[in-house]
Amino acid sequence: MKTLQIIKQDQDKNISLVEHETTHTKYIQKELNYYDKTLYQTLQKIKNPYLPKIFVIQENDNHLILIEEYIEGKTLDQQSFSKEQVKDIMHQLCECLDSLHKLNPPIIHRDIKPENIIYHDSKVTLLDFGIARFLDSKKSKDTLILGSVGYAAPEQFGFQQSNPQTDIYALGKLMNYLLNGSLEHQNNIPFDLKQVILKATQLDYKNRYNSVKEMDLAIQQKLVVIPPLNNDTFKSKMISLAWIVFTLMIVVDMEPGETINNSFINKLSCFLFIYFGLFLYYNKNLFHKHMSKVPWPILYSIIFFLFLCLDVWFFMWIDSLI
């Protein structure tokens, strides 16, 4: 192999662009001082279109030498993107991480940031597994405090063990950066994506998305919010729960109506009618995206009225069968 360029060199690793002297094929060569050989062997075996292929893994004198596929293109920090491009990038990253998180044990990347992601010809490639690790169910927190400031989740600083939600936190921060060039403020970010970022970057990992698949559905506006089970924030969950409890208190004391004679059916019909108003409120993006030209208050009223008619008709039919 002929060395063409030293890409990065520090006390932990030496990364070079090399070329095969006979075939003139370019590769990335990595010499690692801090590594988990088993992790790289696992990455070598899996088929993931969003990861560079690993051709050689060789251990020598407490060093690990890797020969990886050379991926042409610019990293995310060297480009700017439209909203639709950002959604496409996030979709591909979620698919990439979903396959890693589903391994047994899962692999957590822990260093998702623009400099570690190439986007070329509308295709994402995730790089640098230098601080990636397997999820260890026996440990309560990470042994080493590692991660990039701004993208690293709180648990990477010794509070808990890194887990799939750690990568979700970094994805939320990454999306924020790609949409407006900032890690903190959310100026000019569309409301729907702002809500996704808010949930993905919750300080407590238990309040983030359960999986990158769930986050991807939310980004693509395919995730149905069922209050209070999967609201974006803890606050909205509590508000939804309080509203449901209040509704139940009202419905329980209701008398059978003229339209529906059965008391239980009548109460269930009223509860679903009121609950649907709450459901519709939290699923604005899901409904409004198909009829964006209609003002939301008007569309909300129309859908609510149609559901009322359907609700009454259905439970009258049920009542007639009892």
Automatic annotation (TrEMBL):
<dbReference type="GO" id="GO:0005524">
    <property type="term" value="F:ATP binding"/>
</dbReference>
<keyword id="KW-0547">Nucleotide-binding</keyword>
<dbReference type="InterPro" id="IPR008271">
    <property type="entry name" value="Ser/Thr_kinase_AS"/>
</dbReference>
<feature type="transmembrane region" description="Helical">
    <location>
        <begin position="294"/>
        <end position="318"/>
    </location>
</feature>
<keyword id="KW-0067">ATP-binding</keyword>
<keyword id="KW-1133">Transmembrane helix</keyword>
<keyword id="KW-0812">Transmembrane</keyword>
<keyword id="KW-0808">Transferase</keyword>
<keyword id="KW-0723">Serine/threonine-protein kinase</keyword>
<dbReference type="InterPro" id="IPR011009">
    <property type="entry name" value="Kinase-like_dom_sf"/>
</dbReference>
<dbReference type="GO" id="GO:0004674">
    <property type="term" value="F:protein serine/threonine kinase activity"/>
</dbReference>
<feature type="transmembrane region" description="Helical">
    <location>
        <begin position="264"/>
        <end position="282"/>
    </location>
</feature>
<keyword id="KW-0472">Membrane</keyword>
<protein>
    <recommendedName>
        <fullName>non-specific serine/threonine protein kinase</fullName>
        <ecNumber>2.7.11.1</ecNumber>
    </recommendedName>
</protein>
<feature type="transmembrane region" description="Helical">
    <location>
        <begin position="236"/>
        <end position="252"/>
    </location>
</feature>
<feature type="domain" description="Protein kinase">
    <location>
        <begin position="1"/>
        <end position="244"/>
    </location>
</feature>
<dbReference type="InterPro" id="IPR000719">
    <property type="entry name" value="Prot_kinase_dom"/>
</dbReference>
<keyword id="KW-0418">Kinase</keyword>
<dbReference type="Pfam" id="PF00069">
    <property type="entry name" value="Pkinase"/>
</dbReference>
